[in-house]
Design a protein that fits this description.
5-stranded mixed β-sheet, 3-stranded antiparallel β-sheet, single chain, alpha+beta, 52% helix, 10 strands, globular, 489 residues, 10% strand
Length: 489
């Protein structure tokens, strides 16, 4: 494990949890000269190197840089990765930096030359991956497809082709399940998954983090074996008090990683009766929620810091609880916990909406927004919070405000699309509004288990959910379906 020389409590906490401390110096990305590129391709390749760390996000910089180095190293011998890097570097040229938290892409009727060049390189990368798969001998080398397939997924997310990105993610999942089956008996150190042993813990962690984003953005598919490549469960020790903001942040990051890894492991129980879920996992859920509440208590008692009102709202100290609040709301209904668990979270939803409003106001005041302009960020921002408010909050006024914000502008954050998720949320609300009581969704009519699937041929998103209607089914729910045209607002 790489450590720094600071030996601060936050550094030691991360090291003990198997994570690199964030004050470890990040050197400039570099790679040996890559053959097989013409001069134009070399320029875009270098553009990727110069901007990759900033481009792919400001959180978990060590992991991001580790994955970038993995991509660059793979590009020396893997032409698919090489062309994907060139494509991403070219696509970056089509974007203007609006602020340090988002890229802006101005769409016109005719794509610029950078965009066209990026698509040409993308097609080359797809062809190279298909050739690589076709020439594979046996099953022991399936891990070599992970980096190129994941790199293609990141490019498609960047380019706004989420439906294609999801296909690459599904391919990666298929590989991971196959790897798990082939190497399940292989001993792994430090509790890491078979995936981590194959591609390294940092690359594995980045993929799992992105896959979890996809799961929350698109829902859980009944036939998918997510838990096959999940890291083993690790508990999080939360102190009674934090020494400073760095200490609170390091504990938060460890809590988030452990909790989401555990969530991934519990998806195997998502579609079975609650009474059949092993007591062990019910206890794990309670332990995670307890750790979250302990973190809130310790953070709220932290004093002696000043909030920087000139910084982006998501970068201010007071917003450190933003991701923990989202974690709490997401995990509250895990393991078939009834949707009534959200009834007591009104203040959490109000806090999320307030911060989301602050983000929009800040970005409007500090960015150049024009008609037809879209914002993009690889990291999750406000869309997941707004979607939670719209779909899980029980107060109609808050839900409607969240939907309004989702539909107000075109934002993309990783696999999240504000327009698509706003329309999905609006449909889910309409189902519940049919049996609302005094402005709140009743327990009988609440929807859950929503899942979004893309049809590449028809350019449609098929949205399914389950709604509690005791008189309609012996199991107490009925399935609802909606079709959304991806090419219209």
């Amino acid at each position: 494990m790489i450590t720094c020389k600071e030996k601060k409590l936050s550094c030691l906490r991360r090291t003990k949890a198997g994570m690199a401390c964030e004050c470890y110096p990040l050197n400039a990305l570099s790679v040996a000269p890559v053959s097989g590129l013409d001069k134009q391709e070399e320029l875009y390749f270098q553009n990727f190197i110069n901007n990759a760390t900033l481009f792919f996000g400001s959180r978990s910089k060590y992991k991001i840089q580790t994955f970038m180095r993995t991509m660059l190293q793979e590009s020396i011998t893997n032409s698919c990765v090489r062309h994907t890097i060139v494509a991403t570097g070219a696509m970056m040229q089509s974007f203007n930096m609006s602020c340090k938290w988002a890229y802006m892409l101005k769409f016109t009727s005719i794509r610029d030359e950078h965009y066209k060049f990026a698509l040409e390189q993308y097609q080359k990368a797809i062809f190279k991956l298909q050739t690589l798969i076709g020439g594979r001998q046996g099953s022991d080398d399936t891990a070599e497809f992970l980096v190129p397939a994941f790199a293609l997924a990141l490019f498609d997310i960047f380019a706004g082709n989420n439906e294609f990105a999801i296909q690459h993610i599904y391919f990666c999942r298929h590989i991971l399940v196959a790897c798990h089956s082939s190497f399940a008996s292989t001993p792994c150190s430090n509790g890491q998954s078979v995936f981590g042993a194959l591609v390294g813990p940092s690359v594995a962690s980045i993929f799992v983090n992105n896959d979890i984003q996809v799961i929350f953005a698109l829902g859980i598919e009944e036939k998918c074996s997510y838990s096959a490549y999940a890291p083993t469960y690790s508990s999080t020790t939360v102190p009674e008090k934090f020494l400073d903001l760095d200490d609170a942040k390091s504990c938060r990051d460890i809590l988030l990683e452990n909790a989401y890894n555990t969530y991934l492991s519990t998806l195997q129980f998502h579609f079975i009766a609650r009474e059949k879920i092993p007591e062990k996992w019910v206890g794990v859920r309670e332990a995670i929620l307890q750790s979250i509440n302990l973190w809130f208590t310790a953070f709220n008692s932290l004093q002696g810091y000043q909030d920087d009102i000139t910084a982006h709202p998501l970068a201010r100290p007071n917003s450190m609880s933003f991701e923990v609040t989202i974690l709490l709301l997401r995990l509250s209904s895990m393991l078939q916990t009834p949707e009534t668990c959200y009834d007591g979270f009104e203040q959490h939803f109000r806090n999320l909406l307030t911060l989301c409003n602050d983000v929009v106001e800040y970005e409007c005041a500090n960015s150049i927004y024009e008609v037809g302009t879209k914002s993009f960020n690889f990291e999750e921002g406000i869309i997941p919070a707004l979607y939670l408010c719209a779909t899980k909050c029980r107060m109609s006024e808050l839900r409607n405000e969240a939907v309004k914000m989702l539909l107000a502008e075109q934002r993309r954050e990783g696999p999240w699309d504000s327009k698509l998720h706003g329309r999905v949320a609006r449909w889910l609300i309409s189902l519940e509004s049919e049996i609302e009581h005094e402005g709140q969704a009743t327990s009988d009519g609440r929807v859950w288990g929503e899942c979004i699937q893309f049809n590449l041929e028809s350019r449609e998103a098929t949205v399914t959910c389950r709604q509690n209607i005791p008189t309609a089914h012996s199991r107490g729910w009925s399935e609802k379906t909606c079709f959304i045209d991806l090419d219209s607002d």
